[in-house]
Protein 1
Amino acid sequence: MSEEKKPIKPNNLEKNEFESEYLRTKNIKENKFENVQFGKQNKGNKKFIIFYIVFVVILICATILAIYFTIQNMEKQEEIKQEENPITNVNEVVTETPKKEAEDKKYAITSYQETYDENAIKIIQYYDANGTVTTNREDLSPSDEWINFIQIDGLKNKSIQNNINERLKNAAYSLYKSNMGVSTYVFANFCNILSVEISGFDNNITLNIDLATGNDIKLEDLFLSSAPINSYLANALYKTLAWEDSNTNSEDEYDLDMSKVDTSEYEEKFLMLINNYNKQKDKLKYTISSNKISIYNLLTPNILDVEWLNNVSIEIDLTECIEEVAMYKKFLTAENIYENNSIGQKDIIVFTDAYTDYFTVLNYGKIQDNIFMEEIAWTFNEEKDLKVPMDYIKKLSNLQKASLKSKTSSSNGVFFQREYNIYKNEENEFYGITVSSYQAKCSISYFENDAFLDFIKLKSQPVAEATLLSFNEYVQKEFPNLKISEPQIENYYISFTGEYLGDTEEEAIAKTKTKTETETETETETGTGTGTETGTRTEPEREEESFNEITSEPLVQEPEIQTELENQTQRQSEDETQQNLETSRN
């Protein structure tokens, strides 16, 4: 019988190995499954991480761009501020601001009664016609094309003077073209400022010079640092567009009707203008006068559709920004820069014009705390010797001044203006003098506070010429505080020796004829031209009596005084009596 085999039991060592193998195999299977799951999870995590990184990068880029554009915008704003009020670094803010405030206070107009002086220089006009240079335009033929330039004389510093003269001459010659004339116009000659426009056929050049240094003057230098120049320019353009677009009343060319004007495009044009100004600040073409600044090169066809834009300007009205104007004080110097300070008119009310061309000024300014007197004589006629009529006019002026002082109450203020026009009759040998007087009264309170501001504004109106009070209706409408009297017109006729001849040309002719005939008869009777009848007045006595006769009546028209018509009637009666006496003697 065969022996039955029993299963062999593994010993402990073998058992352990078996279990280890089993467990290893099991673990491998389980690990494979876990690895597959982990791999899937891993792929999802990677996508999330990539998305997160991209999102963060986008956010960072957006933030960087936002910061960049913010900085750019801030820099642009700062550049604009720097252009209007240059400050190179933050530290300068501390020092610049008080400095500019101090300058503004120093240069500002503090009273409307402040005055300014004309520059003490001679301005000489030259004319070059085909190489022939003369100071007398009458030497030129009407057919001549000439270059007109000016030269100045009177500065102590001859180097600065020569440099300015060279610039003035070169600028005029640079504009000359064949058969095209060149003219030079002086707009400002005061407070050490010289402003000149040199105009050719299709272009112009402007020079604005500080006479103390010879340097050019920038537009912003004419104002305080705080002045809103952009606003002034916008307002100036508005007026220009308004004049172009409005329907002007035919009866009053200064009365604008804006009711039918489309102003919707004005704002866009304002922005264009300001942009032009910012681009051309250092090369503006402009001229300066006592009450306005005219700027030529800011207008473009898309702003103003006008031919010859080179010679079209926009004007800043200085009477609308009086408190920000610095030009009357900014260029003055502690030391006098002129050789002869007696040249030029002095003490002119700011923002009003001086009387220089064609005028002789007899009185200008306050002759008393409550009286402002302005007297001028037109002396533009060709007569060289005006001594006789001017001496007579000065006597009339002195009498008028005394009369004003004695008859003006201290409770009133007075503006008094007077014009003298001289006419010469060669044939009959006499002068005619027409005197036009204008007077405005006001309360003393108004005179001391606001009257001169109104006076300044009135003088700058387009309707105002040599005088302003003659525009009675306009003045009374715009400035009711001024009580305007009716203009007073007087005529005086005097001989070439200054003898009073009457109030009318007929009287003057009659007297000069009578005098000529009497002298002829006297020469015939005596055989000489020196004899006179016994009892006849001598020439000095006659001159004194004639002058006393015309000036014995008060020259100011007041209710209690005889009217001018009564005065003239009385004089005429006295003259007729005198003529009858002379006739009876003869």
Protein 2
Amino acid sequence: MLYNAVFSLDELESIKLSKNERTKDLLKSVLSEAENVKGAGEGASLLSLGFAYYYTGDIKYVEKAKEVMHTVCSEDKWYHGGKHGGFEGNSELGSSAKTKFMALGYALFKEFLTEDEREYITDNTYKKGIMTIYEDWILPDTRIHSIDTMGHNWWIACVSAGVLAATIMKDEIEKGEELVRIGCDCCEAWFKYEGNPINTKPVNYDEGGFWEGLDYINYSLNEYLLFANVYKRVFGKHPFDDEEIIRKMALFILHTYYPSDKALQTVPFGDTNGAEDMSCPALMIRYGLDIPEIIFYLKNRVKYDRDKFTQLLIWDKVAESEAKAPTETSACYSKIGWATFRDSFENDSTLLAIKCGDTWNHAHADATSFVLYKDGALVIGEGGGPQSYSVPAYQGYYVQSIAHNTVLFEGKGQDYRDNYKDHVRVPGRLVNYKDCDGFRYVAADATGPMGRYFRKHQRHFLWIEDIILIYDDIECYEKGTVNYLIHEEKEITPFRMLTPCEYEIKKGYKNKSSEINCEYKSYNLPTGVEDHAKFVSALCLDEGKEPQYEEFEKYIKVTYGDIKFYVNKISDGRVMHKNCFIEADGYKTDATILIENGGKVAVVNGSIVRKNGKTLLGVFARINGYI
């Protein structure tokens, strides 16, 4: 029967016999949703109506579903028409939603439809849904989009809906099998897209990390997996060899997740409403993938999820499966400019997340921004985040550099046009990532995004034991004031600005508000023409320790307990054809940062270290890490 494309009667029988309390709660929620469908046209409700009918046998759910489908079919068109979302066409996200739910409804209720009703529903779905999508997005003779221009979440959402419907209705529509094959090829091309330097378009997925952030990796993967699950149940195989990329995407979701019993928290970069609607992890398990890390994720965030339907179908399996946190406690996605470091995956641990990549659409103008979670809370946050174009302050504040933990020049950050033109022309980047033997490091280079003000802007993040040292090395074109912004979520936080400089309190917005409702700090350093501004700051993870700061002609010394940092002020490109040696406390080195930690010595960007004339490091090219 065609309903097997969605679920089987054996699965429903298993749910009836389940002793798991979570499964019982999910069952009540799904049946309640079906019971409370208010009016026709609620396409998403077709899944709950279908489940409710096959679970209870009550024909009232069939009648309501038929009402929904007939109402959608009676609409003149399944798109907003004209210009929508910045482009012209006959299909967009609204039409993709109607298309997929009409197809799922048809699969669930086909046997209850008369021949005329079947023809009416398939004909409307084909003309208003499937073919408008294929003509706009897929077929070469009519296609108006390319992955290079619309290759973010819209592409996979629209294509997946079209090929899902074609899969379910393949025997009732013209060239159904051919449409399915072409649609599968299109999905594969989207996942494997490597970017386009002419259009400054980034890779879609960098080892599983999606450049538009968590809400949009969830949305795009959710739409694909809805289709892929149906395809697998119909054809007995995957649409293409997609398992490796989905596993990598699963790990990206884990590395940007902060476990806590106090609140559901995920890395907030870009447009995001949080992750309560994160439905794609459950769909991964539904797809038959054995991913212990996703089991860990689902079990740890159980009370927050809203995706009741898919979770109901899988929860007994989840409850019986092995859960395992990722073995790696850090990750760097250098092609999209995201990195995370944490001390563990235990609840309420410490997580540092850094972003320095593309800016466009849902990716904000936030090169070098960072956030810190500690003790179950976001303690260093940011003002960005609301996925709501209707908020008046959205374009002027939330997506701009000023809303993030970035550096400005004379109060100005990245060009505001980066968000709405053809991406930032020279994206930020993360380089020299390393996590080994307690040495955690990455450098964020925002020289491109801030190129109209800075000849150079590099921000170094160095995590050693219970301190995270942050060193900003900036060279300005013009005389002016450099502003270091920090958005603290609490009155007392681990953040310390060590460089002597004045700060001022600024007013901002939070939580989708367009009324001033928060404060943040701007630390200010004046600079001359072609001068350097250098900020040394720290995140002190031990409340009982305070760093000591000393500044000398060529270097800065920071002492934190038994750890000493020597920041090389002249390792900034100012000397040509000569090495940038400093001498400090018996050390002679060319390293950008030299670290002494209980008898061990480490370097950031160093090739030579001598202590009292004895060579500790002597390599031909600079390295990072303990020596």
